[in-house]
Design goal:
By secondary structure, the chain is α+β, with helices and mostly antiparallel strands. It has two helices and eight strands; from the N terminus they run αβββββββαβ. It has one domain: SspB-like (SH3 type barrels). The protein is globular and about 45 Å long.
Length: 129
């Protein structure tokens, strides 16, 4: 059985904490082929999205994707962000939040070859203050 990622759970928890604290939750995203955001607002392959209740509608934070509707320069846009593309989530007002390491690229090794390698425990996030 494959290990379930903690990333979507931590994103939801930090989003909830921001809202409970009266802060604006911002999501930093690495834009890839599976990310649907307005490309005019992407800089250096990344975008920062305001996920506050006043900024988006129909927010759904699932284990694989984050979806919502937002406005960019007055134009409505449907956002689709793979959870794996999320770089971090933080409170706009304080900068407190979490930054995630990039996902490991998929390898062509078989599961037996991967199992034979020693398991290295790497930290998967860093607390930003």
């Amino acid at each position: 059985m494959s290990e379930i990622s903690t990333r979507p759970y931590l994103i939801r928890a930090l989003h909830h904490w921001c809202e409970d604290s009266g802060f604006t939750p911002y999501l930093a995203v690495k834009v890839d082929a599976n990310t649907q955001v307005p490309m005019a607002f992407v800089k250096d392959g990344e975008i920062v999205l305001n996920l506050g209740v006043a900024a988006v509608r129909h927010l759904a934070m699932e284990n694989d994707y984050i979806t919502c509707e937002g406005r960019f320069s007055g134009t409505p846009f449907r956002l689709i962000v793979p959870v794996s593309a999320v770089i971090g989530i933080f409170a706009k007002e304080t900068g407190q939040g979490l930054v995630f390491q990039a996902d490991e690229p998929q390898s062509n090794e078989t599961s037996a070859e991967q199992a034979a390698k020693p398991a290295a425990k790497k930290p998967t996030l860093t607390i930003v203050k």
